[in-house]
Amino acid sequence: MTTSSRPPVLLLGGTGRTGRRVARRLAARGQRVRVASRRGDPPFAWDAPDGWPALLDGVSAAYVAYAPDLALPEAEGHLRRLGRAARAAGLQRLVLLSGRGEPAAARSEAALREAGVPLAVVRSSWFAQDFSEHFLRDGVLDGVVALPTAGRPDAAEAFVDVDDVADVVVALLLAVEASTQTLELSGPGLVTFGEAAATIAAATGRPLAHLPLDVAGFAAGAVAAGVPREEAEPLARLFAEVLDGRNEHLTDDVARVLRRPPRAFADVVREAAAAGAWDVVPAGAAC
After folding, report:
1. What pLDDT was estimated at residue 282?
2. Mean pLDDT of the chain
3. What's the average model confidence in pLDDT over 129-133?
4. Cα 214 to Cα 219: distance, rounded to the nearest angstrom
5. Which CATH architecture is the domain 3-127+159-187+248-263 placed in?
6. How is the chain split into domains, by residue range?
């Protein structure tokens, strides 16, 4: 069966950082996609399961990128319900984006697996693009990247290129046989947040420093930036937890699946800088 003749692949979180990239890659291979979002037709919401059957109808596989994080308390129940709905709709495979070293996320993975639909789990390191496309970008623009690392100021992360993550997800979605493996994706090296700041500063010409905060201080800053308190506080605790050293090791899963090495953090940063990721439009300038 060619990709163009296959049933569509459903992308839950299809407008996010990985979802957009997965959608483009699938479309380039002729694979039809169905992108689910709150503004879609039909709309998708985790707290509105009555609308899920219409989205699942007629699809063979789904990629699941849960936001804001699988480790949040409500995620386990949402994923359990999704697994049951996927089984009822006859899906043949699921691919779930998860995080490394997160016990609560592992419980959500298990909840999705309970229904018996073949499930591949992609546990990712922090994205290199967190600094250019997500929650750390404002800190780069302000010259200070604050994180709840007061207990380990030299905490390191195996930052992975989100394009590598998307390539792995697509490989799993289009493989001849549905996978049930759990992969851990990392970049090719460990990078401290101080080193990350120095790399970005060198690429952009902007001064940038890493500011270690305690959990309460980081949560307060997130709330001040507009993150709901009920999300900010558990995320602050989660970040401090996963930056305790448990993930300071590399894996070969990117190379094993893609048959090429993962991209280095510095290469991703240089590409983002060249593309204007941290350029700021002056006040009053045309959009």
Report:
1. 46
2. 94
3. 97
4. 9
5. 3-Layer(aba) Sandwich (3.40)
6. 3-127+159-187+248-263
Structure token pair of residue 118: 């073949």
Q: Which two tokens stand for residue 46?
A: 């985790």
pLDDT at 131: 97
Parallel, antiparallel or unpaired: strands 9-12 and 61-64: parallel
Tell me if 260 sits within 8 A of 168, measured CB to CB. no
Contact 170, 26 (CB under 8 A): yes
Which pLDDT score is estimated for 41? 80
- Helices 229-242 and 215-224: crossing angle in degrees, nearest 10, is 140
- Note the pLDDT of residue 3: 62
Q: Is the pTM of this model over 0.70?
A: yes
User: Cα 207 vs. chain centroid, distance in angstroms?
Assistant: 27
Task: Decide if 67 contacts 99 (C-beta within 8 A).
Answer: no
Structure token digits, residue 214: 């305690």
pLDDT tens-digit series, residues 195-219 = 999 999 999 999 999 999 999 999 9
